[in-house]
């Protein structure tokens, strides 16, 4: 993967690696991230893949000898200046329940020596304008998360880093957070880096994506490129017939790999358009089909297909 400096990426790492202990495994392993300006970059991976650790490295919260660049500058050389242009929400926000939304923001403003002037506008942006004077102990999880984002927006950062921003939210809360992220990007020009373990979530919100497994990058590119790759990977198909064993033999004779799973047979096709021919083959051999169903590919299968694709990832 090439690290180009023209134009500089808003955030980039080159072969970033990290171990929590000298003899422990690499939790982040040769990770070269490239986050374009004005993108919404989804950092996708299962629980324990190394997302939060990477975010901590990007924010200078963990020490590393590897270069981490934000806005084209090395983080270590000007951490204070660079981080004043970054807003972050890692997991759930720490709020004082007995203080109102506005008062919670004032606490952070005092700490960061920012004026209180921007608070009403930011609360309006995140949809909490009407709740500015409510104590946060009465807030729903979604409202707390939006207030956490409001706090990250203090100081008008150009880059916003969000660790699993929809975690723990109900469907309505997820929808609102998703719309808010898009609004911040499209209307306020913010570059947003967010981590998630949900492929569907990333596809709906992000312009770019980096997929990691065990700290290693499997794929990095635009969501359009990911969709193309995803489409070209194999489709799992479940078949139930009156003779699953006979169907298995038949399909294997035609070069399909398959296995019996309970009352069904699982095989993989190159695309959904191959299903009619498959049905004809089974029916022509006198086997009765009870049902046939193309499964939607989940993250695990995408990981699997990426892992086996020599052209993808690292
Ligand atoms: N402070 C720590 N000390 C030792 N190991 C840690 C520490 N924090 C995380 N790990 C380990 O590092 C690996 C990556 O964890 P990390 O939290 O970065 O992953 P993640 O992708 O953010 O997962 P999740 O979505 O569950 O938060 C995991 O195996 C985890 O157990």
UniProtKB/TrEMBL annotation:
TM ranges are none
The UniProt entry, under SMART domains, shows: AAA
Protein family membership: Belongs to the ABC transporter superfamily.
Which organism encodes this protein?
A: Anseongella ginsenosidimutans
Domain called ABC transporter: residue spans: 11-239
Write the protein's name: ABC-2 type transport system ATP-binding protein
| Keywords attached to this entry | ATP-binding, Nucleotide-binding, Transport
Q: Which Pfam families match?
A: ABC_tran (PF00005)
């Amino acid at each position: 993967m090439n690290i180009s400096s023209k134009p500089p990426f808003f955030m980039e790492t080159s072969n970033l690696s990290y171990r929590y202990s000298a003899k422990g495994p690499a939790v982040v392993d040769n990770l070269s991230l490239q986050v374009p300006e004005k993108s919404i970059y989804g950092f996708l991976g299962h629980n324990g893949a190394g997302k939060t650790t990477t975010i901590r490295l990007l924010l200078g919260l963990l020490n590393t000898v590897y270069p981490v660049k934000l806005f084209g500058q090395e983080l270590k050389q000007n951490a204070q200046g660079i981080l004043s242009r970054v807003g972050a929400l890692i997991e759930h926000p720490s709020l004082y329940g007995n203080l109102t939304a506005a008062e919670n923001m004032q606490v952070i403003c005092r700490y960061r020596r920012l004026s209180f002037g921007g608070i009403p506008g930011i609360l309006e942006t995140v949809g909490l304008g009407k709740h500015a004077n409510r104590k946060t102990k009465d807030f729903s999880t979604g409202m707390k998360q939006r207030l956490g984002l409001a706090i990250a927006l203090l100081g008008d950062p150009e880059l916003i880093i969000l660790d699993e921003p929809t975690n723990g939210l109900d469907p309505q809360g997820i929808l609102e957070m998703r719309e808010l992220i898009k609004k911040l990007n499209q209307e306020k020009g913010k570059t947003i880096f967010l981590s998630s373990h949900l492929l569907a979530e990333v596809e709906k919100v992000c312009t770019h994506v980096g997929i990691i497994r065990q700290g290693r990058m499997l794929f990095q590119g635009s969501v359009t490129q990911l969709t193309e790759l995803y489409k070209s990977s194999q489709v799992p198909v479940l078949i139930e017939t009156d003779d699953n064993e006979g169907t298995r033999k038949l399909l294997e004779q035609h070069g399909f790999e398959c296995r019996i799973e309970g009352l069904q047979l699982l095989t993989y096709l190159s695309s959904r358009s191959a299903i009619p021919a498959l049905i004809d083959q089974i029916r022509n051999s006198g086997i009765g089909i009870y049902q046939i169903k193309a499964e939607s590919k989940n993250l695990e299968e995408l990981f699997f297909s990426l892992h086996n694709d020599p052209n993808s990832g690292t």
